[in-house]
Design a protein that fits this description.
- Two copies of one chain form a homodimer.
- With 113 residues, chain A is an alpha+beta fold.
- Chain A is built from three helices and four strands, in the order E-H-E-E-E-H-H.
- The model of chain A has no long low-confidence stretch (mean pLDDT 94).
- Chains A and B meet through strand 2 of A and strand 2 of B.
Chain lengths: 113, 113
């Protein structure tokens, strides 16, 4: 087994308010990370699954952006209310949450097959 | 192809100076990330390989810590002078740099086989 079975990276990059790309931080990503962290702890998954803060993941326009490794599934527009579904489906059953996956072939090309 | 062929996460977490675990930031991780970023750009690899800032990767005692996905190889004690070798060997030839891998079975158990 690897150190983490799943490693969840949540973009917490913050840009100035006038930046045309926007930023994940302003879309609530810090709260999303806290929600992941809290729920993973409650479920006793802390040692196998880590919710990690990340700098800019270069997917600002899709934020709040989350990428889960090792499978590199990209989620966009993630809100606190989505955390439970991602954990129950993707983390626990290895079934990525289709409706939240970034709908762009540069991100989830293979995953959508 | 996935969005990134290799995704390099460099821990830039900063702790107070008296914290017994130490922190990657104080071991120069921000400069290591800059070195990765600069060199990847010079080599024209920016669109396939990303050097990303990360929050605490929970490997403080091994810092500066770098983890590379999708293979989840953990490197410890990474310095600016190691960046070229990691890029030339691991990133370009898929040959992890053994001498820099964290020598602890919780991190690189499979990788050392």
């Amino acid at each position: 087994m690897k150190r983490f079975e799943k490693h969840i990276f949540i973009c917490e990059n913050k840009r100035p308010p006038d930046n045309p790309r926007g930023c994940c931080f302003d879309k609530g990503s810090a709260e999303v990370r806290e929600a992941f962290k809290k729920r993973l702890a409650e479920l006793g998954l802390k040692s196998e699954v880590r919710a990690n803060s990340a700098g800019c993941l270069d997917a600002c326009e899709f934020g709040a952006t989350v990428v889960i490794y090792p499978e590199q599934i990209w989620y966009g527009g993630v809100k606190i209310g989505d955390v439970e579904e991602i954990i129950q489906s993707h983390i626990l059953k290895n079934l990525p949450v289709q409706r939240l996956m970034i709908n762009h072939p540069s991100y989830n090309k293979d995953a959508k097959a």
